Q: What sequence folds into this?
């Protein structure tokens, strides 16, 4: 299993719209995705996790990430994103992690 974050990453009303591709490569049938976004300049951290779980052959995951601090919002600018995917293949769980520098941008929100 492999993935990366789409960047720029959209934000809507301070909520990051994290998404990326799912690259099924080892007989996986289900993926559980956990994302953490840190925006150092704003002193914000937020985490989101599935469910919903993502089933093969879905080609993309998407999660809404809210800052964990009350009444705070992600803002346009640089951020750091960390992802973990637990990919289930039969009786095996494969874990894939990655880190990526991203840009948060309200203009990147997909309106479809």
A:
């Amino acid at each position: 299993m492999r993935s990366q974050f789409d960047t720029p990453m959209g934000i809507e009303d301070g909520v990051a719209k994290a998404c990326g591709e799912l690259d099924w490569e080892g007989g996986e049938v289900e993926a559980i995705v956990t994302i953490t976004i840190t925006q150092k300049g704003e002193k914000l951290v937020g985490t989101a996790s599935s469910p919903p779980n993502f089933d093969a052959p879905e080609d993309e995951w998407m999660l809404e990430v809210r800052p964990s601090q009350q009444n705070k919002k992600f803002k346009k600018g640089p951020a750091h994103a960390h992802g973990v995917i637990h990919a289930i293949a039969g009786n095996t769980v494969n874990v894939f992690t990655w880190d990526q520098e991203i840009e948060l941008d309200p203009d990147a929100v997909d309106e479809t």
